[in-house]
Amino acid sequence: MRYAELKLNDVANAPGIAVSFYTQGCPHHCPGCFNPETWDFDGGKEFSYETLEQIITGLTANGIKRSLCILGGEPLCENNEFLTNLVISSVKQKLPEVKVYIWTGYTYEELIKKNSPKVNQILHMADYLIDGPYIEALRDITLKMRGSSNQRIINLREVDKG
After folding, report:
1. Which of 105, 103, 146 is nearest to 127 (CA)?
2. pLDDT digits (tens, 9 = 90+) for 132-143
3. Would you state the pLDDT for residue 29?
4. Which of 3, 19, 57, 76 has its CA 20 to 30 A from that of 50?
5. For the segment 94-119, what is each residue's pLDDT rounded down to a tens digit?
6. How sure is the predictor about 160, in pLDDT bands with cuts at 50, 70 and 90?
7. Which residues, in sequence order, are bridge partners of residue 140?
8. Whole-prediction pTM value?
């Protein structure tokens, strides 16, 4: 299992302060991607128990509650499903109140149609999904948490309810 980067005090992705975890490997290769160094599934760093502990302790370091952002690469592709599930389930087990944001190049509808047990479990545990591929022609720097106007912020707690 590989990951690209871990930022323990990130203010760029979600509201407030977050721990941002970047998975390694992406099948989409969107033109204009802000993170092409994460495309190679063999790149990045080896994930370890220590990495997981850094994430968990980082979420409440110095008494500051943080959100967890999972980006990529592609956190919900088949190669990264297990790692994404492991990180979120471990965090939610120890810190159930932590808000989890996931960025994916897949649409929510594609993920549901995929009907992967691991992805379904991830979607059930996460709070927000930012979905859809980055489309350079639709780039909009005024959007919060998104790079192009086709991408959506989906509150998964509302979707779960109904």
Report:
1. 103
2. 999 999 999 999
3. 95
4. 76
5. 999 999 999 999 999 999 999 999 99
6. low
7. none
8. 0.96
Supply the DSSP string of 24-69, one letter for each residue. Answer: S--S---TT-S-GGG--TT-SEE--HHHHHHHHHHTTGGG---EEE
Cα separation values, 54 from 6, 30, 58, 141, Å? 9, 30, 6, 31
Q: Please tell me the predicted confidence (pLDDT) of residue 37.
A: 96
Residue given tokens 């975890």 in the structure block:
21
* Inter-CA distances, 13 with 1, 71, 100, Å: 23, 9, 12
As given in the structure block, the two tokens for residue 102 are 């996931």
d(CA 81, CA 18): 21
C-alpha angle with apex 140: 27 to 106, nearest 5 degrees? 25
- The partner residues of 153 in beta bridges, in order of sequence, read 130
Q: Is 156 strand, coil or helix?
A: helix
| Sheet containing strand 2-10, strands side by side | 45-46, 2-10, 18-23, 67-71, 100-103, 128-131, 152-155
